[in-house]
Amino acid sequence: MNDLSAIEFEHVHYQAPGGAVILDDVSFTVVRGEVLVLVGRSGVGKTTILRLINRLLVPSAGEVRVEGQPTREWDPIALRRRTGYVLQEVGLFPHMTIDRNIGVVPRLNGWPEARIDARCRELLELVGLDPLTFGGRFPHQLSGGQRQRVGFARALAADPPVILMDEPFGALDPLTRAELHCEFRRIQEQLHKTVVMVSHDMGEAFALATRLGVLDQGRLIALDTPEAVARTDDRRIRMFLDAMPPVPVVAHESA
User: Fold this and answer.
1) What does the alpha-carbon distance between residue 185 and residue 181 come to, in Å, rounded to a whole number?
2) Sign of the dihedral defined by the CA atoms of residues 230, 36, 86, 116, in that order
3) Residue 6: which H helix or E strand, with range?
4) How far apart are CA 129 and CA 135, in angstroms?
5) Strand-pair category, 61-66 with 69-70
6) Non-local CB neighbours of 25 within 8 Å, separated by 6+ positions
7) Number of H helices, E strands in the chain
């Protein structure tokens, strides 16, 4: 393993229990601190890759390694606490306050309450929400964009080195989505997490990725910088690029 590698896929195949081949001989490496965005049509295996990383699934053949260790050798719970997960549906617990939602994993890890309280305040400030205003609210009292910010804060709560994001902004209106793109870039500049994100939106991928992967029929057909992917002559990728309208860009002031 290269010391800079956070995640490695080596000739990974995944076949669903019903017999369908979802991934076919997929190999790639995610470098520590980079943002890899995976794009492609529905059903090509993007979310399967995320689930293989945190061992919700195991490969039918080949090997997935996280921090140099095959996922088959990880304790599943320990691995998932090392990999924050952000979903499109957010998945906040409706009966818990925002503070309690953010503190779920630190509490499971046995952190003292004072440390959890301090971490919740720190993370709410990081994602642009006032702790005094939002910490005691419940998810239904927040807008969709605010809930998504809380979902990201919860994924960061125990300071995992890897963040997995499954279409985290897909359910939001275009303006809110563009605003959260700015917030994501700001936070990533501070934290330098290793991020693997799934998106259907090429505009979003170009806005956020340091590297861009394109999947087609279970295979990784491109993996490069967004600029290099944009220059490709591959007809499959050109069709996908041409079909995806860009997301509006919201300007933000530098600190």
Assistant:
1) 6
2) negative
3) strand 5-15
4) 9
5) antiparallel
6) 11, 12, 13, 62, 219
7) 11, 10
Question: Contact at 8 Å (CB) between 143 and 173?
Answer: no
Helix (H, G, I), strand (E, B) or coil at 8: strand
- What is the distance between the terminal CA atoms of the chain, rounded to a whole angstrom? 37
User: Could you tell me where the beta strands, DSSP code E, fall in the chain?
Assistant: 5-15, 21-31, 35-39, 61-66, 69-70, 83-87, 162-166, 194-199, 211-216, 219-224
For 94, residues 6+ apart whose C-beta sits below 8 A from its C-beta are 138, 139, 140
CATH number (3.40.190.10, 3.30.70.1520, 3.40.50.300, 3.40.50.150) of 1-74+201-247 reads 3.40.50.300
- Give per-residue pLDDT as tens, 1-44: 556 889 999 999 999 888 889 999 999 999 999 999 999 888 88
Is the backbone of residue 91 left (phi > 0), alpha (psi -120 to 50) or beta? left
Q: What is the CA radius of gyration of the chain?
A: 18
Task: Tell me the pLDDT band of 255, cut-offs 50, 70 and 90.
Answer: very low
Going by C-alpha positions, the residue among 37, 36, 15, 16 that lies closest to residue 25 is 15
Tell whether pTM > 0.85: yes
What's the CA gap between 97 and 101, in Å, rounded?
6
Structure tokens at 137: 């609210």
State the pairing for strand pair 83-87/162-166.
parallel
Please answer whether residues 129 and 149 qualify as being in contact, where contact means their C-beta atoms are separated by less than 8 angstroms. yes
Task: Please say whether the beta carbons of 226 and 205 come within 8 A.
Answer: yes
